[in-house]
């Protein structure tokens, strides 16, 4: 049988399956199953993926919570825009707002302590990329995306937006302090 000529018998699909074909179907199936179960396995044991949660919310509700944390735990302001630097207590919820074209506020965390960092966009899609760590999260409007993190290295990290979001995309930068 060739791919160009029509099949010799009309009911060509009723041919018995060749052994080689069965072997390949089984190999492909087993591989699919391995890959499938690797996803939950690697999530738990690979120590690579972030544990995250997402909730529907609105810009009003989200900014209200962010404002509460800023009002309570601001330790100083930075840059000409007077962006508050927030040092929340360990274990608490911390809110970061992404909008055209800034991150607000600046977070100051303690190494070895866990935090629930909330991320949300006020307008459209942005990307939260923490440099030089390999952390990369899409920040959507309408969703409160929560990541639980325990910073393990002291330093000043950069947050850059890595989803193209308009003419000033390249200026959408911020910092994250770990002390
Ligand atoms: Cu925000 Cu690119």
Describe the overall structure:
Helix content is 23%, strand content 37%. The strands form 2 sheets. The protein has a 7-stranded mixed beta sheet. It has a 5-stranded mixed beta sheet with strand order 1-10-7-4-5, with helices on one face. It has 179 residues and is an alpha+beta fold. The N and C termini lie far apart (71 Å). A hairpin with a 3-residue loop joins strand 8 and strand 9 (135-139). It binds dinuclear copper ion. Dinuclear copper ion (CUA) is lined by residues 101, 126, 161, 163-165, 169, 172.
Which helices and strands appear, and what pairs or packs with what?
Layout: H1 19-45, E1 52-56, H2 59-73, E2 74-78, E3 83-86, E4 93-99, E5 102-104, E6 106-109, E7 115-121, E8 126-131, E9 135-139, E10 143-149, E11 155-161, E12 173-178
Parallel strand pairs: 3-6, 4-7, 6-12
Antiparallel strand pairs: 1-10, 2-3, 4-5, 7-10, 8-9, 8-11, 11-12
Dinuclear copper ion binds next to loops.
Give a quick summary of the entry.
The protein has 179 residues and is α+β, with helices and mostly antiparallel strands. It contains 2 helices and 12 strands; from the N terminus they run H-E-H-E-E-E-E-E-E-E-E-E-E-E.
Number of strands: 12
Low-confidence spans: pLDDT under 50, at least 5 residues? none
Q: Please report the distance between the alpha carbons of the first and last residues.
A: 71 Å
User: Order of helices and strands, N to C?
Assistant: HEHEEEEEEEEEEE
Task: Label the overall shape.
Answer: elongated
Overall structural class, as computed from helix and strand content, comes to: alpha+beta
Name the bound molecules: dinuclear copper ion
Radius of gyration over all CA atoms, rounded: 25 Å
Secondary structure: helix percent: 10-25%
Question: Average pLDDT across residues?
Answer: 90
Please indicate the percent range of residues in DSSP E strands (runs of 2 or more): 35-45%
Q: What is the topology, as strand order, of the major beta sheet? A: 2-3-6-12-11-8-9
Give me the number of helical elements. 2
How would you characterize the largest beta sheet?
Answer: 7 strands, mixed
């Amino acid at each position: 049988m060739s791919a160009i000529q029509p099949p010799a018998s009309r009911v060509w699909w009723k041919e018995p399956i060749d052994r080689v074909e069965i072997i390949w179907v089984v190999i492909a199936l087993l591989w699919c199953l391995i890959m499938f179960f690797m996803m939950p396995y690697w999530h738990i044991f690979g120590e690579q993926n972030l544990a995250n949660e997402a909730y529907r919310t609105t810009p009003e509700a989200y900014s209200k919570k962010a404002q509460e944390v800023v009002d309570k735990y601001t330790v100083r302001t930075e840059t000409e825009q007077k962006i508050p630097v927030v040092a929340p207590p360990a274990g608490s919820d911390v809110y970061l707002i992404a909008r055209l074209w800034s991150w607000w506020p600046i977070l100051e965390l303690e190494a070895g302590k866990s935090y629930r960092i909330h991320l949300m966009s006020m307008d459209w899609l942005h990307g939260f990329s923490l440099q030089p760590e390999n952390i990369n999260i899409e920040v959507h409007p309408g969703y409160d995306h929560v990541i639980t993190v325990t910073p393990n290295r002291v330093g000043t990290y950069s947050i850059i937006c890595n989803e193209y979001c308009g003419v000033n995309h390249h200026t959408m930068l911020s910092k994250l302090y770990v002390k």
